[in-house]
Automatic annotation (TrEMBL):
Cofactor: FAD
Lineage: Eukaryota, Metazoa, Ecdysozoa, Arthropoda, Hexapoda
Protein name: Electron transfer flavoprotein subunit alpha
Transmembrane spans: none
Main location: mitochondrion
Amino-acid positions noted as binding FAD in the UniProt annotation, renumbered to this chain: 225, 250-251, 264-268, 281-288, 302
Domain of life: Eukaryota
Domain Electron transfer flavoprotein alpha/beta-subunit N-terminal: 23-205
A cellular component term, taken from the record's GO annotations: electron transfer flavoprotein complex
Primary role: The electron transfer flavoprotein serves as a specific electron acceptor for several dehydrogenases, including five acyl-CoA dehydrogenases, glutaryl-CoA and sarcosine dehydrogenase. It transfers the electrons to the main mitochondrial respiratory chain via ETF-ubiquinone oxidoreductase (ETF dehydrogenase).
Protein's cellular compartments: Mitochondrion matrix
Native source species: Aquatica leii
Stored SMART domains: ETF (SM00893)
């Protein structure tokens, strides 16, 4: 009987604790559209419990704000529009997050684990004198998190004792939260002079592609050093077009200059977890596996039957890629 009471008490206490939390999610967007990782981050914030506020910093970011105001589970959208946020440079976004934190006293500050947050959140954590918890793949409670360490070779569960928890989450481990069904209030983020003299945004050249974005594609076809040249990647583009897939690459292929580095999958590249990952001419080094081994189905094409990629693949084809890939594309 006593243990039943203590279980009830523990459940009530945990629910009350959840309600006391308030999380600031940093939105990633291009003013018009939201990066899918923002929805994954909202989903992670829901697991923490309590109120969710999303910060949108940008220039003419009305469309992104509008989408977030309808996002399920979001209580408030904080809007900061200024030329200071052109290019989303970390030096300017950091003081805005700190000012928002000062005003609202969030218990958690959270963003997706992306190049953007990797530049911003460590600065925020340092200024708040707390330790950032990065690459979170699971949330056990408001202070206990599961994260991936040693390039995905070990899983760590830790309790963070800092008063404010600063987290980056792996998008592939949290289902995207719906952008419908909510009715968040919106208000201006704290005003301030956020223009830093440490760095200035000059411009950016974004690669344009009609193919799906690598980190959110359902199917990814990746090529490695086995492709032997950038021109030969055409074989993979043809296959990808048939499958409506994104195209990725190993670091060896990127380092050799076959393809640009925004296509790199792995520990120091992008983390992907599509329904189908086809690795072509990739040996399967642990640093590559760290970026794709959570894919639902893995297919490997490699001429070496001993290649480690076959240990993680669901379907393996020992074959010369220059013969197998055109054949596969032809059959599709
Ligand atoms: C700190 C650190 C971080 C790293 N981060 C990353 C990362 O993020 N991502 C990443 O990918 N790597 C990363 N690496 C590099 C990693 O260790 C490997 O060197 C790299 O993944 C190898 O790429 P690859 O499989 O394309 O090349 P290789 O290992 O050279 O493999 C090429 C494969 O192609 C096969 N092949 C060749 N010709 C054919 C053919 N005609 N038909 C079929 N198969 C063929 C070969 O059998 C071989 O298995 C990192 C390394 C370090 C030290």
């Amino acid at each position: 009987m006593l243990s039943q009471y203590s279980r009830q008490f523990a459940a009530q206490f945990s629910n009350q604790l959840k309600r006391l939390q308030s999380t600031l999610v940093i939105a990633e967007h291009n003013n018009e559209t939201l990066s899918p990782i923002t929805q994954n981050a909202i989903s992670a914030a829901k697991k923490i419990g309590g109120e969710i506020t999303v910060l949108v910093a940008g220039t003419k970011c009305g469309p992104a704000v509008e989408k977030l105001s309808k996002a399920d589970g979001v209580k408030r959208v904080l809007i900061a529009e200024s030329d200071a946020f052109k290019g989303f440079i970390a030096e300017n976004v950091t003081p805005l997050i700190l000012a928002s934190q000062k005003q609202f006293n969030f218990t958690h500050i959270l963003a997706g684990a992306t190049a953007f947050s990797k530049a911003v959140l460590p600065r925020v954590a340092a200024k708040l004198d707390v330790s950032p918890v990065t690459d979170v793949i699971g949330i056990k409670s408001a202070d206990t998190f599961v994260r991936s360490i040693y390039a995905g070779n070990a899983i760590q569960t830790l309790t963070a004792n800092d008063k404010i928890k600063v987290l980056t989450i792996r998008g592939t481990n949290f289902e995207p939260s719906s952008l419908e069904g909510g009715s968040a209030g919106s208000e201006k983020a704290p005003e301030g002079n956020y223009t830093s003299d440490l760095s200035t945004f000059i411009g950016q050249e974004l690669s344009k592609s009609d193919r799906p974005e690598l980190t959110s594609a359902d199917v990814v076809v990746s090529g490695g050093r086995g492709l032997k040249s950038g021109e030969n990647f055409k074989l993979l583009y043809d296959l990808a077009d048939k499958l409506k897939a994104a195209v990725g690459a190993s670091r060896a292929a990127v380092d050799a200059g076959y393809v640009p580095n925004d296509m790199q999958v792995g520990q120091t590249g992008k983390i992907v977890a599509p329904d189908l990952y086809i690795a072509v001419g990739i040996s399967g080094a642990i640093q590559h596996l760290a970026g794709m081994k959570d894919s639902k189905t893995i297919v490997a094409i490699n001429k070496d039957p001993e290649a480690p990629i076959f240990q993680v693949s669901d379907y393996g084809l020992v074959a010369d890629l220059f013969k197998a890939v055109p054949e596969l594309t032809g059959k599709l």
